[in-house]
Amino acid sequence: MEQDGVKLTNIPTDVLRLIIMYLAMSNGGASNLAKVIAVCEAFKQFSNDREILKVTNFDNMEQYCLNDTFWNENGLLAKCVTVGNESTRQIIQQIPILLLGMEEI
Predict the structure, then answer these.
(1) 89: nearest Cα among 98, 99, 77
(2) What share of the chain is helix, strand, coil (3-state, %, to 5)?
(3) Cystine design at 87: which of 1, 58, 96, 100 (Cβ 3.0–4.6 Å)?
(4) Rounded to an integer, what distance in angstroms lies between the CA atom of residue 8 and that of residue 91?
């Protein structure tokens, strides 16, 4: 069944890119970006956009938000570290503390 209106994926790519960039920069941006890129292939293309990855906000992230999709070698955290994202520095510095906490589980 077709619906009237515009699909989000029909928005010009440069406009959609700006929307996703602002979302990634917001408080909790990394979590929001992870949710957005999981929606569809059209959005997943932005998971490799260097400019978006560089400004993705990891500040104020709760430990429970950093699930496997962030930690694996192709995950969002790894991609953001690779492009020099500054807010990932805090997360990377916390890895030894987080690993110590996991030993108690």
Answers:
(1) 77
(2) 65, 0, 35
(3) 58
(4) 32
- What does the pLDDT read at residue 91? 73
- Express each pLDDT in 23-52 by its tens digit: 999 988 888 888 888 888 888 888 899 999
pLDDT at residue 11, rounded to an integer? 84
| AA letter at 21 | M
Kindly state whether residue 3 falls inside one of the protein's structural domains. Answer: no
- Beta carbons of 68 and 97 less than 8 angstroms apart: no
Instruction: State the residue range of the domain holding 62.
Output: 8-103
Residue 20 has pLDDT above 70, yes or no: yes
As a whole number of angstroms, the distance between CA 15 and CA 26 comes to: 17
Number of domains in the chain: 1
